[in-house]
Amino acid sequence: MNVFISFSRRVVTASVFVGLASPLIVTPWLAFPFVSGKALFVEAVVLVALPFWITLLLLDPVARPRRHPLILALVAQAVVLVLASLFGVDPLQSFWGRDERMMGIITIFSLLALLGMALSVFRTRRAWNNVLLTALVIAWANIIWGLIEHFYPVFWADFRGESMRVVGLIGNPIFYGGYMMLSAILSIALIPEIKCRIGKVFLIITAAAATLVTLYSGTRGAGLGLFGGLAVGLLFAAFKSPIRKARVGLLVGIAGIIAALVFFFVFRDAPFLKPVRELRRLGSAFSLSDATAIQRMRLWRVSLEGALARPLFGWGPENFDYLFDQHFDPLFLKFTLRETFADRPHNAFIQTMTDVGVLGFLALIALQIIFIRSVFRLRDSNGSLWVRSAFVSFLAASDIYLFFAFDTLPTLLLTLLVSGWLIVSTSKMIISSGRIYSRQASFVVPAVGLLALSLIIFGVIHPASALAAIHRVTATDPRTQTERWFGHLKTAASIKQPYQEVARYRLGNAVFSAVGDGLVPDDRASEALELGIQALRQSVAGRPRDYGSRFTLGNLLLLSAARGRGERFAEAEAEFLRAAELSPRRQSTYIQLGNLKAVSGDPTASLSYYQQAVDLDPQIGEPHWYLGRGFIKSGEKERAVEEFVRSWDLGFRPKLKNEIREAASLLFGQGRLDFTILLYQRSVDVFPDDAELQAELAAAYAAAGNAEAARAAVRRAVELDPSFAAEAETFLNLLDSGALSAPAEGE
């Protein structure tokens, strides 16, 4: 038995250290390379070690975690999570999570299990110092990655999109900044704990480097968390320090931090800060006129409104999209269509209320109180005040950051590790003489092993296969690799796995984009549409309350109807109307209903739907644009011009070339040359290599009497397409003779 216990302990110990490496995991072959791999990796590691951990708990009383208020608080939160999931709007999504976040109950419980395993095999403060040091050594991979990104911007560019902010191996500057912020403060906390001089130097360098890349991430919440957390820690130390000079020095340090933040805010737009774009972003965190700040506060208002609708247990973990759809604010369309979808309120405290209700929020507050109480109970030792102050800083920094963001696997892992350190450091060393459950182990351990194996197959291997198939769909060009693209599409749709309904939704979107953009050969477009429609119908059947699946199914049916399946106009309209019931204040649904009626030959009905979109909030420009297009179809040109101008004045900027040209042509004919030129300028900004648009812009300039601009535009058209040379020469001759003039209004 002792050999079996020893072997189990070694497996669990190795598994904990392997699990600590999860922030390093990047899986480019999966649909969400920075998220999916990390979560599946932790789940797999925990499931492999689970039977051995259960063996330890049953056979070795010493391995059983000690009773501690922090453990009880974590268990209470876990119980509330389960209850909120059971009473939420989508229990399965709460359990497995969404594939782009992977923070469902199974992932959270895996992290809690990893903490439990660590508490079973690491029983002393010194051992936990080594655990935290290991976590910081692992963090160095992300530090180095971030430094390379900053000083060599072309590095890792394919994974950063259009952003120049560093993302490390986390994939998002917001979450990278939070992870590095906590790593910096944790390094500071451990300095008195490590007696080796080399270890202290390592921690000082780690703290400095992690601070640097936190700022390089350009994440305002992480930057404020870092400075604010340090200020709170210094304030705590000032109150606790018995030395007057030390108190004065600490208060001066706090004043310096506040002065630095005020400086960055006041001079955030100053030219001398232009090269340091990350610090300029930190200053803009206090600006209420910032577009991101406006959207965040609007999102918080909607989130609180939704929380009041289900106050006790909330909507369930990972179910925020249901809340957002039902309580959607039309003002979200003011900036971009992308802002009309959200799966988090970007405030962890509000998210707790929306996900798990009042009970969950109270459990979170209790956990934080117990965390601080544990910090105060740290045994006296050299550097005790330093350590206490640093952990106060850790909690304060985390809270400030989470006020603008939410926990991801790397940040939650670090927080749980710090909690484990506190549990061991504030517990009495007790050698348990508890009962050994050897008979029960012979039944329980095989059952746990079978369950773990099932979860590995169904919850890790199958999702990984499906996510890989989805990635292959989006990475394959259907124009040049048509058969391969269809093969990937069918494979991804056929894999049975926990995220299959969301996977089908993503496949439907992929088909809509590919067919809509003309990437699928015409003779195979109908086949692709049928596959997408079939996948989405299954998704809708599995998640009948999901707005996104309904809306995308309506789009695919509309596209199919426009390509010759006229009977599907009615089906598409039914899906859009059901989507409107699920999210009654989204303009996009009514705009698509208007487009459907316009395409099907009913312009009068299209005007009604477009007007509904406008009436949801007349201060949003995009619905006015489509109402103008509806007026064109119904022959009401003057009213169309009014709506186009109104749309532009409200800040909407169209992106579809045919829509821009149609509106510009109408405005040109109605003599509204100012807006005609604005639209064509917009079009050449979006499509800078389109010679026809340059030629049309030249004609508008000429009609407005701006000969110099007209010459420049026509020369650009000839550069892009030399076949325009003869027409350009004629145009320039007419321009020089004064024969080109503006059309009469209404012509």
Automatic annotation (TrEMBL):
Matches recorded under InterPro entries: O-antigen_ligase-rel_domated (IPR007016), TPR-like_helical_dom_sf (IPR011990), TPR_rpt (IPR019734), WaaL-like (IPR051533)
SMART domains named among the record's database cross-references: TPR
Pfam families on file: TPR_16, TPR_8, Wzy_C
Keyword annotations from UniProtKB, A to Z: Membrane, TPR repeat, Transmembrane, Transmembrane helix
Membrane topology qualifier: Multi-pass membrane protein
One GO CC term on file: membrane
Subcellular location: Membrane
TPR repeats: 587-620, 691-724
Signal peptide from the UniProt entry: none
Boundaries of every O-antigen ligase-related domain copy: 206-365
Main location (coarse class): membrane
Superkingdom of origin organism: Bacteria
Residues that span the membrane, as ranges: 12-32, 38-59, 71-89, 101-122, 129-148, 168-191, 198-216, 222-239, 248-267, 356-376, 385-406, 412-431, 443-461
Record-given protein name: O-antigen ligase-related domain-containing protein
